[in-house]
Amino acid sequence: MIATLLIQHEKLEQLPSGGTLSPYGVHQKHGQITSQALQLLSSQRRQFSNTYISVKLDETSGVAVMKLKRPPVNSLNMELLTEFAINLEKLEIDRGCRGVILTSAVPRIFSAGLDITEMCGKNADHYGEFWRAVQEMWLKLYGSSMVTIAAINGSSPAGGCLMALSCDYRIIANNKKYTIGLNETQLGIVAPFWFKDIITEVIGHRAAERSLQLGMLYSPTDALKIGLVDEVVAEDKVQSTASAVMAQWLTLPDHARQITKSMMRKPSLDRLVTHREADITNFVSYITRDSIQKSLQMYMEMLKKKGR
Ligand SMILES: CCCCC/C=C\C/C=C\C=C\CC(=O)SCCNC(=O)CCNC(=O)[C@H](O)C(C)(C)COP(=O)(O)OP(=O)(O)OC[C@H]1O[C@@H](n2cnc3c(N)ncnc32)[C@H](O)[C@@H]1OP(=O)(O)O
C-alpha cells in the first residue's frame, strides 16, 4: 500500500515548467520515503502547480480539477500547452485518477484560444514547434481515457472552444457576456481539419458548416441550442454541477466506458496521427504567408485598441 502510494506520489512530483514529456523515475527520492508516506496517508488531496496550470487531485473521488492560470486571458502559448500535456499525462498514468474537470482560474475567461503572438513575426521552426505542441495538447485531451468535463467559466473562443469540445461533457456559466465558438474565419484564417472534424462530430454537419464559415461565437443559451455545450448553469453552480456530472459518469465501470470512448474517437485521432507531419508542414506554409501574417497583425491591433 505504502509502496503504491509512493510510486503514485513520485509520478505526481512537480516537473519544472516548460519541460518535455519524459519518464520520471520512481526511485529518485529514497531519503524522503517515510515522510512522504506519512504525508500521503494523512491527506486525501494532492496538489501540484506549474507556471500556468494547477492541479488538485481528490484521491477519495479520483477526480482532478485542472485549472488554466495564465492571465489576462489564458491564451495558449507553447509553455502552457506543454505543461498541459505533461500534467494530463501524469494524471493519465495515475491509477488514483479517473476523471478530470478542466476549468479556468482567470475570472470571466475560460481560454482565449491559441496565443496569437506565437503565430506572428516568428520563424518557420518556431511555428512548426508551436503547432506540434498544439497537436500534442489535443491528442492527449481528446484521446484521454479518463472522464473529461469542461467547466466553462468564461469566454472560450477558437482554441479555447477546441479544448472544451475535446472533453466528454461541457457545462457553461449562464452569462450573456461569455461567448464560445470556432471564430477562426473572423481572424482571416482557416480552422485546421481536425478542429473542423471535432465540431462536426459534436454539433453535426449543417450547424458546423454554418458555424465555421461565419466564425460564429455563441452565447451560452445559443450554444446549448445547437449542442455545442451540454448544460448552461448559474455562474456559481458551474463547479458543483461539473462534480455532480463527473460522479454520475464515474458510476460506470471504467473498462466498458473507456473502450466505448476509444471506439468513438479513434478515427479522428488516427487521422491526425497519420497526417501529423503533413499538418505541421501545412500550418507552417500557411501561417508564413504575408496575407495571413497581415490578417493576424491587424486582428491583434484590433484587440489592443478595444482593450484601451
Ligand atoms: C488551407 C490550410 C489551412 C491550414 C490552417 C492551419 C492552421 C490555422 C491556424 C490557427 C488556428 C488558430 C486557433 C486560435 O485559437 S486563434 C486565437 C483566436 N482567439 C480569439 O479570437 C480571441 C481573441 N480575444 C478575445 O476575443 C478577447 O480577448 C476575450 C473575449 C478572450 C477577452 O476579452 P477581454 O475584454 O476580457 O480582454 P482583452 O482586453 O480583449 O484582452 C486582454 C489582453 O489579452 C490579449 N489577447 C486576447 N486574446 C489573445 C490571444 N488569443 N492571443 C494573444 N493575446 C491575446 C489582448 O490583446 C489584450 O492584450 P493587451 O492589450 O492587454 O496587451
TrEMBL record:
<keyword id="KW-0007">Acetylation</keyword>
<keyword id="KW-0413">Isomerase</keyword>
<protein>
    <recommendedName>
        <fullName>Enoyl-CoA delta isomerase 1, mitochondrial</fullName>
        <ecNumber>5.3.3.8</ecNumber>
    </recommendedName>
</protein>
<comment type="function">
    <text>Key enzyme of fatty acid beta-oxidation. Able to isomerize both 3-cis (3Z) and 3-trans (3E) double bonds into the 2-trans (2E) form in a range of enoyl-CoA species, with a preference for (3Z)-enoyl-CoAs over (3E)-enoyl-CoAs. The catalytic efficiency of this enzyme is not affected by the fatty acyl chain length.</text>
</comment>
<comment type="similarity">
    <text>Belongs to the enoyl-CoA hydratase/isomerase family.</text>
</comment>
<keyword id="KW-0443">Lipid metabolism</keyword>
<dbReference type="InterPro" id="IPR018376">
    <property type="entry name" value="Enoyl-CoA_hyd/isom_CS"/>
</dbReference>
<dbReference type="GO" id="GO:0004165">
    <property type="term" value="F:delta(3)-delta(2)-enoyl-CoA isomerase activity"/>
</dbReference>
<dbReference type="InterPro" id="IPR001753">
    <property type="entry name" value="Enoyl-CoA_hydra/iso"/>
</dbReference>
<comment type="subunit">
    <text>Homotrimer.</text>
</comment>
<keyword id="KW-0809">Transit peptide</keyword>
<dbReference type="InterPro" id="IPR029045">
    <property type="entry name" value="ClpP/crotonase-like_dom_sf"/>
</dbReference>
<comment type="pathway">
    <text>Lipid metabolism; fatty acid beta-oxidation.</text>
</comment>
<keyword id="KW-0496">Mitochondrion</keyword>
<dbReference type="GO" id="GO:0005759">
    <property type="term" value="C:mitochondrial matrix"/>
</dbReference>
<dbReference type="GO" id="GO:0006635">
    <property type="term" value="P:fatty acid beta-oxidation"/>
</dbReference>
<keyword id="KW-0276">Fatty acid metabolism</keyword>
<dbReference type="Pfam" id="PF00378">
    <property type="entry name" value="ECH_1"/>
</dbReference>
